[in-house]
Amino acid sequence: MMDYANTSKMISRPVVTLSYAQTLDGRLATSTGSSQWISAPESLRFSHELRVEHDAIMVGAGTVCKDDPRLTVRLVAGRDPLRVVVDSTLRTPLTAAVLTEEAAPGTVFAVTDRAPAARCDDVRALGATVLSLPAESGGRVDLVALLAALHEWGIRSLLVEGGAEMITALLRARLVDRLAVCVAPKILGAGIEAVGELGIRELARTLIMTDTSVIRYGVDLVLDGRVEYPGTPTMTAESEGSVGCVRVS
Question: pTM of the full predicted structure?
Answer without folding.
Answer: 0.87
